[in-house]
Amino acid sequence: MSAILYPVAENAEAALTSPIGRAAREREAQSAAGAPVVFVSEEVGPAFATREAALDAYKGKLDDDRPGGAQVAPEDRFCVLRERSEAAPAPLEPVFVKGRRWPKPARTPKVAFRLSVSYWRVARAEAAPPIGQARAVRRAAEAARLDAAQLRALARQPLRPVRPQQPLDIGLFEQPAPEAPHILIPDD
Question: How many domains does one find in the chain?
């Protein structure tokens, strides 16, 4: 069994054309990039009206099951052709027609085919989060001047308690065991 060698790159276009390297595992990708990496799948390129047009455009990147089509090597299967709806269908009103709750849609939505690339994206250094907790920063006067990167960093901060957690209360019918005070024994 061979593993898929995913490209290591800054973006999906670079993953297709000129990757930094190829790696199956995260640590291999980190050593190739020299920085932290994140595994992502992104759509790239134009949308095609038919599957055949997409297969012709990305020859050698996808398995072609048509007669005379080529198969991609197992380690190169990091691209997938995805089918997407171009527009959402209009909502239908529920009615009873010929014993059916929902009528058949007037037409099926138009679909498009796009290439999806899975790769190791080189993680960029994010802006340092503002000092303090989110609840304090949000109420401060400087909150209106935070940019999008600072807000994202603030949202990704781990939650911290306002004050240290107090010890648990002992219930009315519980008392600590004499030989082990950390264990509570129910008292009838």
Answer: 2
Q: Are residues 83 and 132 in the same domain?
A: no
Contact yes or no for 129/157 (Cβ under 8 A): yes
d(C-alpha 120, C-alpha 5), whole Å: 10
Asked if residue 138 and residue 113 are part of one domain, the reply reads no
pLDDT tens for the chain, 188 residues: list them.
458 999 999 999 999 999 999 999 999 999 999 999 999 999 998 999 999 999 999 988 898 888 888 898 989 999 999 998 877 767 766 777 777 776 666 667 788 999 999 999 998 765 565 566 777 787 888 778 888 888 887 887 777 777 787 776 777 788 888 898 888 888 86
Q: Give the range of the structural domain holding residue 138, as residue numbers without chain letter.
A: 127-157
Tokens of 43: 């759509």
The pair of structure tokens assigned to 82 is 């995805």
Which element (helix H / strand E) includes 41? strand 37-48
Same domain? 15 vs 77: yes
Smallest CA-to-CA distance from 121 within 1, 19, 3, 45 is with 19
Same domain for 114 and 32 = yes
59 & 22 share domain: yes
